[in-house]
Amino acid sequence: MPTLYLFSLVIFLHAASTFSRHLPEEVSEAAGRYYSTTQLDREQCRTGNPMDDCWRCDPEWDTNRRRLADCAVGFGKSAIGGRDGEVYVVTDSDNDDPVNPTPGTLRHAAIQEEPLWIIFDHDMVISLNEQLLINSYKTIDGRGHDIQIAHGPCITLHNVSNVIIHNIYIHDCLPSGYAAVWDPSLQYTSGGSDGDGISIFSSRDVWIDHCTLANCYDGLIDATYGSTAITISNNYMLHHNEVMLMGHSDEFLDDKNMQVTIAFNYFGEGLVQRIPRCRHGYFHVVNNVYSGWEMYAIGGSASPTINSQGNVYIALDNNSTKEVTKHENSLDEEWKSWNWRSEGDMMLNGAFFTPSGEEASASYIKASSMAAKPTSLLTKTAQYAGSLSCQVGQAC
């Protein structure tokens, strides 16, 4: 075995084990959560991650919070959230009224019509009574506190745009039945939720960054019904079966315009499949670390274009789970024409990617959203995925 391969394997396995020690041992217990970052020396804080290097070195990030809105890359780079609005401070984690939201609660902030940058004044575990419907031009910014949404229905984006969700720990999300909920666009609406951590329906210009997501009833992040212009970045995901669904169904053709960037995430222990599972559309999977999967990592149907660049795929020891890719609901003569490529990826412990379709770069223009970094960079960036322990007055 080449020396470089052995060296790389040792580095990445060490990075993975070191990283996991900073994260929750029992994701179902709020009290068991550990943060994924240490305070950085300002002169050494740059990692090469373009999103983090845009803001994390600033010791005055707390007074410059809205600078974050200019830091996104990828297909969701135009998501400005509540950059142009006032700051709304959430003070109440307990009184969640889905019909008449209480001022000071996250739900009251999320449904307002004007742009808002939503922050929190203390550590909170928010257990919602019904799904949280978020209006357009909102940022939910958990920096500076331990903010968890858990043990109830979680977040829904429905026919909205310009939403940023940052530095939230989302876990143990549950489905909800049909109930009255204050919908930003329709006022009252009746409808249930599937138990996703974050559901994105018919929405665009969305950035989900530096969140930790685990152990939800359905998906961790699902994007369907014509949603597009999405970046999912710097998140830590663990202990879940069907991780991310991109596209409603093989028959729903409006998802042909979907463009999603999945970048700088750490896909950790206990993940099974759909990391992501894609239909139609264009998907840039770039500079992520996969530390094993129990069925497959990237799958799809209905001829999606998948551009895998600069990722690290570390297969489990199980010989039946070495393949990164899975072609769903299709015969060989069908999927072999789908444009799936692996470029600059590192395959470890027997991992392999089955490419298909065209090799020319021109075939991947709509699935290209940022320049891939070398995989060697990920030994430094991966340990900071997930929610951060930011302290006021220090670089985060």
Automatic annotation (TrEMBL):
Residues of the signal sequence?
1-20
Cofactor(s) needed? Ca(2+)
Query: InterPro entries attached here?
Result: AmbAllergen, Pec_lyase, Pectin_lyas_fold, Pectin_lyase_fold/virulence, PEL
Q: Give me the reactions it catalyses.
A: Eliminative cleavage of (1->4)-alpha-D-galacturonan to give oligosaccharides with 4-deoxy-alpha-D-galact-4-enuronosyl groups at their non-reducing ends
Pathway listed for it? Glycan metabolism; pectin degradation; 2-dehydro-3-deoxy-D-gluconate from pectin: step 2/5
Q: Which UniProt keywords apply?
A: Calcium, Lyase, Metal-binding, Signal
One GO biological process term: pectin catabolic process
Q: What class of enzyme is it?
A: lyase
Family recorded in the similarity comment = Belongs to the polysaccharide lyase 1 family.
Q: What is this protein called?
A: Pectate lyase
